[in-house]
Amino acid sequence: MKQKHGLWKLLLPLGVLLLLIAAFCLNGGGAGAQAPDASASSSAVSSPAEPAAAEPAEADPEQDLTELPEIPEEPDTPESPEEVPETPENSTPAAPASSPAASATAALSGGTADGTYTCTISVSCAALLDNMDLCDPEKTELVPPDGWLLPPTEVTFYEGESVFNVLQRTCKQRKLHMEYENTPLYGSAYIEGIGNLYEFDAGELSGWMYAVNGWYPNYGCSQYLLEGGDEICWRYTCDLGADIGGAAADQRSA
Questions:
Q1: Nearest residue to 247 via CA among 211, 212, 222, 213
Q2: What is the mean pLDDT of the chain?
Q3: Taking a C-beta distance cutoff of 8 angstroms, is the pair 213, 250 a contact?
Q4: What is the largest CA-CA distance in the chain?
Q5: CA–CA distance, 249 with 240 (Å, rounded to integer)
Q6: Three-point CA angle 244, 196, 159, nearest 5°
Q7: Is the model's pLDDT at 69 over the cut of 60?
Q8: Which of 10, 39, 96, 246 is deepest in the core (most CB within 10 A)?
Q9: Per-residue pLDDT tens over the stretch 100-150
Q10: For the whole model, what pTM was predicted?
Q11: Crossing angle of the two packed helices 88-98 and 100-109, in degrees rounded to 10
Q12: Degrees to nearest 5, angle at CA 188 with 219 and 177
């Protein structure tokens, strides 16, 4: 009986020790079991995060593709240079025009910076003042007291224009009568009348002649090409040019 009692005393502490060991193992095993859950959860959290990072990566190229069509819209910058000449376009050509070099060149050539030239033109019937007895009575009132139908006037013309071009345009602008006839034989225009004063109104040797810089050409006014600074004088003659200093000319006004 005493032996059983002694064994019980030995087995009881052993049982308590085993219970403690079992409880410790259970606590350690639970923690170990929970650890994989945490790693699994972390992996589960990280795994969806990785595709989330991949999705924006796929979206970036799509955004680049959408930006590509916007690049052609940048021609707005090349369009602005095209529009620039529109406003400065006036100022850019005007700069050389107003520059001293351009003005000097224009002065030397007898022209202006805008490509035009100047000359002087006049129309006189002063010879009739000394030959009124030869003049048609119906035309005497058309002769001005000073003989000028058009006093010396500076006009502009373009390169390649002739004496005839300037006379025709000037008479039209000044509302001065002028009548001519094209003569195929001479390949030029023949001036029949200016200011309603016609050839033969003062005799058989009367009519219109022209001089440029004091010289009476022996060819038609349509063939004489002007230069800047030329002086054109149309004069009515009563003696085939002898009374106006043009006796050496071979033909009248043609």
A1: 211
A2: 73
A3: no
A4: 192
A5: 9
A6: 70
A7: no
A8: 246
A9: 333 333 434 455 667 899 999 999 999 999 999 999 999 999 999 999 999
A10: 0.56
A11: 60
A12: 105
Of 11-15, 64-68, 151-155, 214-218, the one with minimum mean pLDDT is: 64-68
Tokens of 62: 């799509």
pLDDT digits (tens, 9 = 90+) for 171-181: 999 999 999 99
Question: How far, in Å, CA of 89 to CA of 30, rounded?
Answer: 88
| Residue 231: its H or E element | strand 231-237
| Every domain of the chain and the residues it spans | 2-70, 115-237
- Least confident range from 17-21, 79-83, 119-123, 126-130: namely 79-83
Q: In DSSP terms, which residues pair with 145 in a beta bridge?
A: none
Tell me if residue 105 falls in helix, strand or coil. helix
Residues 235 and 244 sit within 8 Å (Cβ to Cβ): yes
pLDDT at 101: 37
DSSP 154: E
Instruction: Give the distance, in angstroms, between the CA of residue 49 and the centroid of all CA atoms in the same chain.
Output: 61
CA 70 – CA 72 distance, rounded (Å): 6
Q: Which two tokens stand for residue 42?
A: 């972390």
Cα separation of 104 and 3, whole Å?
A: 145
Fold designation for 115-237: Ferric Hydroxamate Uptake Protein; Chain A, domain 1 (2.170.130)
Regarding beta strands 148-158 and 116-124, do their DSSP bridges make them parallel or antiparallel, or are they unpaired? antiparallel
- Amino acid identity of residue 199, one-letter, is E
The span from the CA of 20 to the CA of 12, in Å, is: 12
